[in-house]
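Sample entry follows:

:::
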Amino acid sequence: MAGPPSSLANVQAALTLLRALRRGGLTHAVLCPGSRSAPLAVAAALLEPGGLRLHTAIDERSAAFFALGLGRGSGQPAAVITTSGTAVANLLPAAVEADFGCIPLLLLTADRPARLKGCGANQSVNQEAFLACSCRWLGSGAPEGLAAMAPRELEALAAAALAAAQGDGAGRGAGAVHLNLPFAEPLHAGGGELTQLAAALSSQPADADPPPPPGNPQAPPRFAAGDAATLDPGRAGMVVAGPWRGNPAAWPAHVEALRCWQRRSGWPVLADALSGLRGLPGLDAVTAYDLILAEGAFSTAAIGGLQVLRLGPLPASRRLQRWLAAQDGPQVLVSEGDGRPLDPIRLVRAQCGAGLAAWLAGQPQHISAGEPAGESLVLADRWHRAEAAVQALLEQELAEEQGEPALARRLSRLLPAGLPVLLANSSPVRDWESFARPGAPPRPMHGFRGASGIDGTLSSACGLAEALGELVLVSGDLALLHDANGWLWRSQLGGRLTVVLIDNGGGGIFEQLPIRTEPAAAMDFERLFAMPQAVDPLALAAVHGVPGRRVEGLAALEGSLAWARQQPMALLVIATDRRRDAALRQRLRTMAAAQVTPP
């Protein structure tokens, strides 16, 4: 019977695995403290001179969301390394978002050997099952320990993990992969052994640079569209674009395919705030659809036989969802690499998971020629006239306002073109959807709407800022406080992050729901729903070394943004009245409905 491995053998096995991941495209690893994971930690440090960027975090949940932001921004999975036990359970929220949001993510967890499981050994739990429901694949090391695996087995494990995390681009979307890696003691190699290993590593040829992210082939794969997935650009229709969840490298082909379809069809494009399409030249997107469909006749008008091309998941607007449910024409859904059902209103007759460029390439050639039909141009004109009327109303009504709808409008105008923005869940993303300026400069828009939670808001923003170079996060006070450990990234952050905090004293989203009207709940609305917290966000940021300012009125926003963007990380706090803003939103919807006429 073979004896236990040496501590050096554990490090060598971990190094072989990480080098294989590095050659496959891994550029970032996020390390959390632990003893069982020591071989992985040492191996990651040994690869730093070769280009692996190693980040460290004491909070596994924050680490996983930081890696999630890296994956969203780069299109490549980052690796999170943890020890065994409850550390693994903290990875679940990020794994859930990676699953539903199609974000590549590698989760490497150290574990006890199989002989120590199920017998009462310390810190031995069924961690291999913790993340299974939210991962694309679960890979495991040898039950007796990673050191028992041959190099070719470790390299195959790495290749399988990367392939599963990145998806196949044709219907199996990117997501989280869990590698559960047993290590037998001894775990901690001596300094002399590590010095020799580092010297041997430095004498070897350097690993080749990782390949570029997949997702931007020279020609898109052709999607064989059957009759169900075919739409006729010579008849009336519209495009509804939801949040973008594709690989960043596929974005240019996606935009060009949409421009091509719109030129041929003349269909109006209703663009979600997270679609990334607003403000792009040549698209002339409709953005105020949630207000246009609020209460007037427009909201109930069904257009016989209207075709709908839906891009990705539905926008958050329930008014739009109800309007789509009232249409009786064919609806086709095109998603970027995610072939799972994305149709909560259950009206899609066909779905293409290979992306818009592939769907367009698969359309019958005879429909690509010709001019937009007159009925399509009439429909588009009606939507654009309604859009213009609503936007004129918003310009007038929000000019002197200081609340959250006015903030969304002002901020969308002030931020320069190309500056990425992350909208936190709940009110910020909804306000940007309805009230942001349609002519605002185009920019990458991000949101974690897969599961729509507030978990990891600040840590995800830090990961995005690291990947993209700079980011503005717009967040509510509870979402930011929920992830207060995210401030700890300040000392390591390579990108710049400006946090615009809407301080409305609790959960403002609940003011927009019919809760206060119910007497039993209204008696204790603040305690049961809003849950305001007696925490000064500026003081909390300052404790972590993050400078901040309180913005006194939206007139001061431009100067405050200019100051904040000069800092590595900065906080701007804008106080609002959530109850007043809820009434303002309702008033604007009522006024908008009176401005539009039915199509």
About this structure: The CA atoms of residues 2 and 91 lie 34 Å apart.
